[in-house]
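INFO  loader      accepted 1 record
INFO  loader      residues=145
INFO  predictor   begin
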Amino acid sequence: MHRLPAALCALLMACQFDAVAADDAIRILRPEAIAYQTDPALPGVSFAVVSGNPAGGAYTLRARFAPGTRLPAHTHPDTRTTTVLAGKYFFAAGERYDEAALLPYGPGTVIVIPAGAAHFAATRDEEAVVQESGSGPTATTPGRH
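INFO  predictor   done
INFO  writer      dumping tokens
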């Protein structure tokens, strides 16, 4: 069995790492450094893309819901994995917003929402923070209210 000389191995490793794109670099985002944006169409909700590109390919979003926020029924074209990070996130499946159907989920809860599955959410007395991952292109299609 032939072994490559250590210098050649080091050179090959260096070339391999030089080929890594900047997007593949490790990034550490502290909560206070995440830049949230609001959308006037979704009062009480602010979003931040923390990695990837929702327009195409794998992505991760972070969303903050102010106390008393109601997110109407809607769907997404991609499967989403939602993890509750903070607060109580009230969630239910269905074509229409139904306050009575909402159940509270706390930090650590993971909700997998299949592509095209109608759902809605809310917060009550406290802010909730969730993180969503999927594979774009993604969108939000309003359901019946």
